[in-house]
């Protein structure tokens, strides 16, 4: 009886210790998995934060250049709202917001095509000698052309 009790207690002890080892191992794996998830989440959130801040800096630079040549209130507000809201929403960041696309799109389409001082100066000086080019018409033409073209390009590119 004593031998049987000793043997059975040994088996129980061995079983319990193996259970503890198994539990410890599985908890270690869970802990490792959880920490890797947290690290991944932290890293991706850091990348998104860095990306968003760099985008806002680019947007600020673009809007400052646009403000120099165009009607500031409408264009600046429109650019800021559209760029920050559209580019920083989580669904569009992964699919649309590569830095090259945005830089090329914003620089070449808005600044080079519509907001270069040479184009606006040439347009205004050629038109200002006629009665057609009053200051109201210049402002209306510049703002409507830029807003319409920018809006349609943003919509087409995004969707």
Judged by helices, strands and strand pairing, the structural class is: mainly alpha
- Give the overall average pLDDT: 55
Helix tally? 6
Helix percent band: over 70%
Shape: rod-shaped
For the biggest sheet, the summary is: none
Radius of gyration: 32 Å
Q: Approximately how much beta-strand content do the residues carry?
A: under 5%
In short:
The protein is mainly α. Helices cover 89% and strands 0% of the residues.
Give the topology:
Layout: H1 2-69, H2 72-88, H3 90-95, H4 99-114, H5 117-127, H6 135-158
Task: Sum up the structure in keywords.
rod-shaped, transmembrane, membrane, transmembrane helix, mainly alpha, 159 residues
Structure description:
Keywords: Membrane, Transmembrane, Transmembrane helix. The chain crosses the membrane at residues 12-31, 37-57, 69-94, 100-125, 137-156. The protein has 159 residues and is an all-alpha fold. The chain has a domain at 111-159. It has helices at residues 2-69, 72-88, 90-95, 99-114, 117-127, 135-158. It starts with a helix and ends with a helix. The model has no long low-confidence stretch (mean pLDDT 55).
């Amino acid at each position: 009886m004593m031998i049987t009790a000793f043997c059975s207690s040994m088996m129980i002890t061995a079983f319990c210790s193996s259970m503890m080892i198994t539990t410890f191992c599985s908890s270690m794996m869970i802990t490792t998995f959880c920490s890797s998830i947290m690290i991944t989440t932290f890293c991706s959130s850091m990348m998104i934060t860095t990306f968003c801040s760099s985008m806002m800096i680019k947007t600020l630079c673009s809007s400052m250049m646009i403000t120099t040549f165009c009607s500031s209130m409408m264009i600046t507000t429109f650019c800021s709202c559209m760029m920050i809201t559209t580019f920083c929403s989580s669904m569009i960041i992964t699919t649309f917001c590569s830095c090259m696309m945005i830089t090329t799109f914003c620089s070449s389409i808005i600044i080079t095509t519509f907001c270069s001082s040479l184009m606006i100066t040439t347009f205004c000086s050629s038109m200002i000698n006629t009665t057609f080019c009053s200051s109201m018409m210049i402002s209306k033409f510049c703002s409507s052309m830029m807003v319409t073209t920018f809006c349609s390009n943003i919509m087409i590119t995004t969707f």
